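Exam prep: given the inputs below (a chain plus glucose-6-phosphate), describe the expected output before reading on.
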Amino acid sequence: MTRTSDPSRSPAWRALATHHKNARSLKMNDLFDSDPRRFSRFSLRWREILFDYSKNRITHETLRLLLRLAEEAGLRESIDAMMRGDRINWTEDRAVLHTALRNRGKRGVRIDGADVMVDVHAVLDKMHSFSKRIRSGRWRGHTGKKIRTIVNIGIGGSDLGPLMISEALSPYAKTGPALRFVSNIDGSDFIEKSRDLDPEETLFVVSSKTFTTQETMTNAHSARSWLLRKLRSKEAIKRHFVAVSTNREGVEAFGIDPMNMFEFWDWVGGRYSSWSAIGLSVCLGIGFDHFVDLLAGAHGMDTHFRRASFEKNIPVLMALIGIWYNNFFGFETQAILPYDQYLHRFAAFLQQADMESNGKSVDRDGRRVRYQTGPIIFGEPGTNGQHAFYQLIHQGTKIIPCDFIGCIKTHNKLGDHHEKLMANFFAQPEALMRGRSAARVEAEMRTEGMSEARIDALTPHKTFEGNRPSNTVLLDRLSPFNLGALIAAYEHKVFVQGVVWRVNSFDQWGVELGKVLAKRILREEKQLLSGEKVDLSHHDSSTAGLIRQFVKRNYR
Ligand code: G6Q
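Solution:
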């Protein structure tokens, strides 16, 4: 195998660049016309998930070269290294073992000689018995009432995954307590989410790996004051607050009984932590058995990812097709379009999973990369997005590869809603690919009896150039198992791209600078608001001017 520290100088990358010179003019319509079996050749089934990647600007040769790129990047060794617990998050000197969290088998996974699976199983057992107590009503609040609402307080990785999953699996949560998520430091978030809650029936799950995050700790303290204001006894905290964290001292200092702390470990990255005790709120909402199904689905996808040959490997193909567009066509964005209302937070979740992981511009040797890395991810559920931003995807000057995600069976049979939803789901990728030629547009307008002048004027506006690529992921149904597998597939897609781009997908130094500046500005705001004189000259004039406006107009 040939290895080079700059993938863009590797033989496969160069071969892809050469191949791209011809491939960029490929018309997908022609590819389908010339190969009646294109769908079966360019799609894969894994259990209840069909991954159709036929509507892409690729040929067998493209895939062959992309697969070579993965081999040259040492993907196989990298997968093994991650799953056996090597410290692949080198800037933080940590292993990356979210795959161990969903592996409920007997095989051990060792870090520095210790089998982490022992702790993983112990925490899962604790989640099991706690969720049974809450859901059955055996756990009572301070005044003896049953807990009816769980409020998860967390942010980023301690919020987006659990929130997305609990929304996605809400059909499985009918008998559990209601779930709410408070994340934003904006007090309106806590106020609105707590407005109609009865503290006697509310349990707060403070989810924070570090237990120092400004937003989470501020919200947790406000929640504590809110509770104490109404229940008037510090003893109440024990029955109304539990913590999910790696920071035992922090949890105790807050006043949460360490017995009510659910532990996880530094080898679980925030955005990969829903599988750990960070999933506690989900588990309370849907019950332990469904939570375990979620883990099983993710574990199933891990096994597929580790064992399937790369040409039949869903995450690997997703990643390589993404690289093809990102690095050779120069398409910078990717749209995530779930046609399922329960997946309405899926794109938001993936924004973090993908952009925080691969939004990097130095490689593992600390050198500035000479190629593009992580794409811009955005999306909304279909069909809502169709009435909003699809215009640009169909006719804009930018090409945005799309992932359409849909389910064959619905949780809610209501008239023909589902057939209509799915008709749109099938129509959009087809429309993007096939387009509508000027000749066809003209002919249609002529049949409608339109004047030639009007036809001339309208034709350019009504023409769709087509050839716009997409993947389609079709699930049999949105079950905990399939959702677990879907999330894991995207996690691994991100991993593969990180390996090829030689970036560390598991750190997030880029979020630090803003935090540091905000701390200092908070000090200044408070000093100014209390009437002290503060020198703001170290700020640029815009920032200083804005801070002064905030303070000045606050006095009115
Ligand atoms: C995710 C990031 C980040 C993190 C939050 C919350 O990978 O690390 O989004 O999850 O900043 O951190 P805590 O869980 O420590 O509060």
